[in-house]
């Protein structure tokens, strides 16, 4: 007697870790998989049976605490470009594949950075402040054409920033893991160990690097002292790239001329932070990449990658868990 034919393979189970809000629509995901939405309290119970974990709440630090001692989903996807909150030892050492949402934020962040450069050069934040005080005070402003911008971070976001700034007339260079000349987006790229030398020549220093052991606290008092007194620091990467107390001290002492900060060590930024009231600082609430439609785009990136998995094609945006970002190939 012939053995019974195997039954149909059930679709994968995707656990979606939500936060204060849920994804806008998961119809494309539900067409490919069984979907279970959970909050942080239910995550530990949901993970052992999950095939995939979709970390929609990219602020969470609950995944590490909930990760099962053995097993766990074979694939974890996060709805952000940064993956630093996922790279805890148990996940790094596991065979679980990690992917991110690379591509959603590149151009919006590049546009935002260009806006910040213009705002700083033209003192737009000062103009708004004076308008609120009904004060008519004429000032001269700066040109951005010919100014020198140093982009720290040579991934897709850093490259988009480089292209946007170069298109506006700035002379762009970069800092990354590997030195190279004549990069199509960033011009001369300096190695990370020569960051201090590169800082000395820049009018605008833009931080767009991922948070790794190599980049944490890389802008400290010594690095700030290498910058020009007329230079500005723009951070759209991670708050932990900068030693915040050192930056406050440098701004107060006039070591650098100003800063535009979209990310902070602790978020939301505490109301007691002196950064709020500094006239040479622009503070924004981690919004540089959040252009209209970004939530839908995040779901689309995951759904397209889920289709790759269901159809047996390589996943895209695969993170090198040792490096902390998507590697050169980015597929698996």
TrEMBL record:
Domain D-isomer specific 2-hydroxyacid dehydrogenase NAD-binding: 114-288
Residue ranges of the TM segments: none
InterPro entries reported for this sequence: D-isomer_DH_CS, D-isomer_DH_NAD-bd, NAD(P)-bd_dom_sf
One Pfam family matching this protein: 2-Hacid_dh_C
Record-level Gene Ontology MF annotations: NAD binding; oxidoreductase activity, acting on the CH-OH group of donors, NAD or NADP as acceptor
Signal peptide: none
Domain of life: Bacteria
Alphabetical keyword list: NAD, Oxidoreductase
This protein's name: D-2-hydroxyacid dehydrogenase
């Amino acid at each position: 007697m012939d053995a019974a034919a195997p039954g149909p393979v059930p679709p994968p189970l995707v656990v979606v870790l939500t936060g204060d809000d849920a994804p806008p629509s998961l119809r494309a995901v539900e067409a490919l998989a069984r979907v279970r939405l959970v909050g942080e309290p239910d995550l530990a119970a949901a993970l052992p049976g999950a095939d995939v974990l979709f970390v929609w709440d990219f602020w969470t630090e609950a995944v590490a605490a909930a990760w099962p001692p053995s097993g766990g989903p074979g694939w974890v996807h996060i709805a952000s470009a940064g993956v630093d909150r996922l790279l805890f030892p148990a996940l790094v050492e596991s065979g679980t594949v990690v992917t991110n949402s690379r591509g959603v934020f590149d151009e919006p962040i590049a546009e935002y950075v260009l806006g910040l450069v213009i705002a700083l050069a033209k003192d737009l934040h000062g103009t708004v402040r004076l308008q609120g005080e009904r004060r008519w005070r004429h000032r001269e402003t700066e040109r951005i054409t010919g100014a020198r911008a140093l982009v720290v971070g040579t991934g897709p976001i850093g490259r988009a920033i480089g292209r946007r700034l170069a298109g506006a007339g700035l002379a762009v260079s970069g800092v990354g893991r590997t030195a190279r000349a004549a990069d199509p987006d960033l011009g001369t790229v300096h190695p990370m160990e020569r960051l201090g030398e590169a800082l000395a020549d820049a009018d605008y220093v833009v931080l767009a690097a991922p948070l790794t052991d190599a980049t944490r606290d890389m802008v400290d008092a010594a690095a700030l002292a290498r910058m020009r007194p007329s230079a500005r620091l723009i951070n759209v990467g991670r708050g932990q790239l900068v030693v915040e107390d050192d930056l406050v001290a440098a701004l107060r002492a006039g070591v650098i001329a100003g800063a535009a900060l979209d990310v902070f060590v602790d978020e939301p930024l505490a109301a007691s932070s002196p950064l709020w009231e500094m006239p040479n600082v622009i503070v924004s609430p981690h919004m540089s990449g959040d252009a209209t439609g970004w939530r839908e785009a995040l779901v689309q990136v995951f759904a397209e990658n889920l289709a790759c998995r269901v159809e047996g094609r390589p996943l895209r945006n695969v993170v090198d868990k040792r490096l902390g970002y998507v590697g050169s190939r980015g597929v698996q």
